[in-house]
Amino acid sequence: MSDNIERISESMAKLSMKWLSAEDEYPDLSKHNNHMAKVLTLPMYKKLRERVTPNGFTIEGVIQTGVDNPGHPFIMTVGCVAGDEETYEVFKELLDPVIEDRHGGYKPTDKHKTDLNPDNLKGGDDLDPKYVLSSRVRTGRSIRGFCLPPHCSRGERRAVEKLSVEALAALSGDLKGKYYALKNMTEAEQQQLIDDHFLFDKPVSPLLLASGMARDWPDARGIWHNDNKTFLVWVNEEDHLRVISMQKGGKMKEVFTRFCTGLTKIETLFRDRGHAFMWNEHLGYVLTCPSNLGTGLRAGVHVKLPNMSKHAKFEEILTKLRLQKRGTGGVDTAAVGGVFDISNADRLGFSEVDLVQMVVDGVKLLVEMEKRLEKGQPIDNLIPAQK
Amino acid sequence: MSGSFRRLISGRSTAVLLASLGAGTMATGVLLNENGSLAAEAKKKLYPPSSDFPDLRKHNNCMATALTPAIYAKLRDKLTPNNWTLDQCIQTGVDNPGHPFIKTVGCVAGDEESYEVFAELFDPVIKDRHNGYDPRKMTHPTDLDASKLKHGMFDENYVLSSRVRTGRSIRGLSLPPACSRAERREVERVVVTALAGLKGDLAGRYYSLGDMTEKEQQQLIDDHFLFDKPVSPLLTCAFMARDWPDARGIWHNNEKTFLIWVNEEDHTRVISMEKGGNMKRVFERFCNGLKQVEHLIQERGWEFMWNERLGYILTCPSNLGTGLRAGVHVRLPNLSKDPRFSKILDNLRLQKRGTGGVDTAATGDTFDISNLDRLGKSEVELVQLLVDGVNYLIECEKKLEKGQDIQVPAPLVMFKK
Fold first, then answer.
1. Residues A83 and A170 in one domain
2. What value of ipTM does the predicted structure carry?
3. Which CDD domains match (chain A) (predicted)?
4. Which residues pair with A285 in a beta bridge?
C-alpha cells in the first residue's frame, strides 16, 4: 500500500503542476451545430469531467465526435456517443437534454414501450409492389456487460463476436445461416456479399471515425445471414449487433414478422448463455448513438414516387406522417430515378409495432397520392393531420 | 485489465487517477467512483493480455515486427505519468497494416515518458528504423553550429529551392496523440509568446487556423505555408486530429523564410526555406532561429524535450534525434532516367520524393531530394551529407548532359562500430 501512496503523490504532484482548469479544457463550440454543442455548458462540463463510468469512460470520450465534427447548418447531428451502458447514467446531465432534443421532447421521467408482437400490426401485407420495390426493418442490440464500440478493447470486441456467432449458429428453419468474418472471407464470398448488398465496409464517415469505432478494423467484425438472405446480422460495426430483415416487394408484415421472431429467438439464445441485451424501462434498448435509443428501429421501403417527390407539399406530408426520406444508398445519399427510401423518423417513445404501423399506413397513403398525381388528379383532400 | 478501463487516460483528472489506483484518499471537490478499483480488478482477470493481443499477421510496420505477445503482456497494464498506455501507442499501427513496399513505423509516443515506460517496444522499433541505433548503448550528438557547413551553395541552374525542417516538443506537456485541449492550448501559448520575441529578419506573425480571414488563408496557400487537417489514416488513427482546428496555427517571419507550424503532427515544426541554392544561409537561419526560440522559452521556465540517448523527442519515432530533413527541389532530367539513380541515392543516404512532399510523385524532372537519416548523426553532419550528396548528383547530371559516364559512389557508413 505504501508504494501505492508514493506513486499517487508523485503522480498527483505532476498532475497538479499541469493542473489545467475546466475553463482551459472547455471545447470551442462557437461554430458548432449539433445536439451536444447546443446542450453543453461550462458549469455542466466542470461537473462531468470529474466523473468516470466503471469502465473508465469519460466526458471526453462522450463528446469527442461532436467536437471534431461541427456539423452542418441544415443537418443536426447528435455529437455524442456512449462508451458503455452506464454512460447514459453517469453523464445524464448532458445526455438527458440531448435525448429530449433529439426525440421530440422525451422526458427523463418518460417510459418507453417495447412491443415485438407482429400480430399487433394491422395490414402491411399489401403495399403495391409496382411502387414498393423492397421492404426492410433494422434495429440494433447491445450485449450487457460489454463496452460499446467507441470504448471496447480488442478482447471485449472478440468476446462479443464469439458470443454472437455461437448464438446465431443455433438458429434453425428459415433462420438457419452462416457467419462471414470480415478478416477471413474469400474474394468470392466478399463479392457475393457485395452483390447481395449485405457487405459493410470500414466506416469512412468522420462522425464514426472520431468516436473511435473503427479501431482495430477488421478484427472481430463480420456478417451473418440466413440461407434465404432475408435475415442479416452485422457484428461489431456501429453497434454490437445490427439486425436486419428485408425482402423485395411490399410485404412489410412478413418482413416485420421475421424480424420479431428472429430477434426474440436471438434474445433467448443469448439468455441461455447467460447474457442479456442492454435494456431499461426509460431508454428501451441501449445503443451507441443516442439517436438509436428506444426501439433503434428503422422500418423502411424503397418506393417509386416520381410525381409525389416533385409536389410542393412532399416534405410537409412526410413530416405529418412522421416519416423521413433518404436516397436509395441509405443515409446521406441522393434519390435515384424518383425512388426514395421512406422510413419512420422516430425511434424512442413509440413501440416497434407503432413505428412499423406508421410506415405501413404512411407509405400506403403516399402510393395513393402518387397514383392520383399520375392521373393528374389533386391530392389535397388526402393530406393528413399531424400524427 | 481491459483497455477500456485503462483509457481513464483521456480524463486527465485527479479523480480518474485515484480511481485507477484504488486509493482511499480524497482530494477536495473530487468525485470518486467507489466501484472503480473493483471493476478494474475484475476486468483484469476476465481479459488477460492474450485476449487483447492485436492480430498483426497481415501487417508490415516496425511495431508489428517488434511487438511480441510477451512484450505486450508485460507492458499492457502500464501507464505513463500522463496515463498513456501501450494500446494507445500502437493503435495507429494496428489500424494501418502498411504496405508490402513501404515500412511505416506503426507506433507513436503520447509523451516524453512513453519512450521509457514502453522501451521494450520502442527500442527495437528505433533500432529497426534508424539503422541499428541502440538507445541503450549509444548517444546522439546534437550540433547546431551552422558555421561548420562546407560547400553549401548549390548551382542554381539545377537547384530551385532549399529547405531544412525539424520539430521541437515542449517538455512537460503531452504530445499530439495524447494532449488534452488545455495542454494543446498551453503549447500554443508558450510558443506564440516566445515567437513574439523574435526580432530583425526573424520578426514575424502568428495566424491561428481557427481565426484566420479568407484572405490570410489564401495568401498562406499561395505561399505553400498552410497545413490542413490531416487526412492520412496514419495520423488520424493516432488521435492527432482531435479538436481540429483548436490551438493550431502557423507563424512565419515577414520575409517568409522561417516558418513554424504549431500543433500539427508535433508541438512545433520549424522550417527554414528559400528559393535558390543557398543551403548555407538556410541552415544558418535554421540554427539561429532555433537557438533564439529555445532561449525565449527558457526565459519563461520552459524547455525542449531532449535527452542524450534519443536527442530531440518527437511524436513519431522516425523523427527522433535531429528530427531533421534537409532537402532541395532539384532538376535532374538526365540522371533521373538513369537506371543507377536509385542506387546512387541509396549509397549517398538520400531519399527522393515528389515535389508535393512525402507520398507524392515527381512532376517533370524535378525531385525533392533529402537526407534519409535522423538519429545517430548531428544536424551539421546530416546537412553536410545532404550538401555533398546533392553536389554529387549535380555533377552526375552535368556529366550525363555532356554524354560522359557517371559512377555509383561507395555506400556511406552510418555508425562506426
1. no
2. 0.88
3. creatine_kinase_like
4. A279, A294
Contact at 8 Å (CB) between A62 and A74? no
A383 falls within a domain: no
Indicate whether A75 and A199 sit together in one domain: no
Going by their DSSP bridges, the two strands B325-331 and B311-312 should be labelled as unpaired
Window B:185-224, CB contacts with A under 8 Å? 185-186, 210
Q: Are residues A50 and A20 in the same domain?
A: yes
For residue A164, the surrounding DSSP H or E stretch is helix A154-169
Q: Which residues 10-39 on chain B approach chain A with CB closer than 8 angstroms?
A: 10-23, 25, 27, 29-31, 33, 35-36, 39
For range A229-250, the mean pLDDT: 96
* Closest listed residue to residue A25, CA positions, set A64, A52, A53: A64
Where are the alpha helices (H) located in A174-296, listed in sequence order? Answer: 187-195, 206-209, 252-272
Domain annotation for chain B: domains and CATH numbers: 48-130 (1.10.135.10), 146-402 (3.30.590.10)
Residues A83 and A161 in one domain: no
Spatial distance between the Cα atoms of A43 and B390, rounded to a whole number of angstroms: 59
* Residue of B1, B2, B4, B174 to mutate, testing the A interface (most A Cβ within 10 Å of its Cβ): B4
Q: Which three cell numbers stand for residue B337?
A: 532516367
pTM of structure: 0.89
Q: Which residues of B250-282 are buried (b: 16+ CB within 10 A; e: fewer)?
A: bbbbeeebbbbbbbbbbbbbbbbbbeebbbbbb
Residue A57 falls inside a structural domain: yes
Q: Of the candidates A10, A28, A84, which has its C-beta nearest B246's C-beta?
A: A28
Residue B3: per-residue pLDDT: 36
Domain of A241, in residue numbers: 118-375
What b-and-e string marks burial along B192-211, b requiring 16 or more CB atoms within 10 Å of the CB?
bebbeebeeebebebbbbee
Chain A residues in contact with B212 by the CB 8 A cut-off are none
pLDDT at B9 over 80: no
A27 to B83, B170, B242: CA distances (angstroms): 21, 22, 11
CB atoms within 10 A of CB B145: 12
Domain tally for chain A? Answer: 2
